[in-house]
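We examine the record.

___
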Amino acid sequence: MIAKTAVGIDIGGTHISCAVADIETGTLLETTHARATFDHKAPASEILQHWTDALNKTLTNSDVDRLMGFGFAIPGPFDYRNGISRMQHKFEGLYGVHIPDALRPGLTAGRSLPMRFINDATAFAIGESWMGEGRGLRKVVVITLGTGFGSAFLDDDVPIVQGAEVPPEGCLWHLPFRYGIADDYFSTRWFTQTYAEQSGHRVPGVKTLMDKAAADPVAGQLFETFGQNLAECLGPWLLRFGAEVLIVGGNIAHALPLFGPALRAGLQVTRVPARITPSVLWEKAVLLGSARLLDDAFWVKVSVHLPTL
């Protein structure tokens, strides 16, 4: 039997990463991986050329006859059903552009293949639920901690975006928390701003604070407070959803050994039984999650929710 494959694509503000995945076995073909960097403020033609070059490099190392299509993980606002960018805070030059029509003429696939789109944080969650720490479980919650606070609630690998057991659209970042919204408390800027306020010194990012935590009481306490706050924010939703596992991704996930104890202790108070674990797939999760969109049976389940993702 000929394997069914798809190109998984991760679009970030400064990079494109892509690789072919076997969507029956959930494995990436490492020899097909390609990556390019760019400036999201560049003209549309320049950005699209970088995307095309990376995709063609992947196609060159692929068996194109087996490809089912292309799955894109891309941040919003974005019309995921129709493949049209609605972003203005970045990729301004691509606003209103129909991505499939813009890319297809430059691709070397030799035939017109489907292109499907989903939010990047959601793609990461799908990959982790499918082939990562959520594999074999039904109720999986994935959060990403970095420049922003991403989240997804998955039931049998499918993102759930409505209903009483999940926050609206599966998103926590915009919900009220303390003196602002959750995104104010669970992102890199919370660490850097709070450390500056408490110590009088500025640091470039969370990695610096991780390195200082053992010897710097202010830095050490920040991670404990972060874990306590995260438990307060997540606990009610994990309980309501019946989460079996909480998977933590994003750059701040590397600090889980520092804030994890406080997070676990806080969740135990509210009797949340979910196991807490860092991502095991990292960037591979996004590529696998986006490639899986070309599994037609899976796409039927996911695409129902695309207008609100």
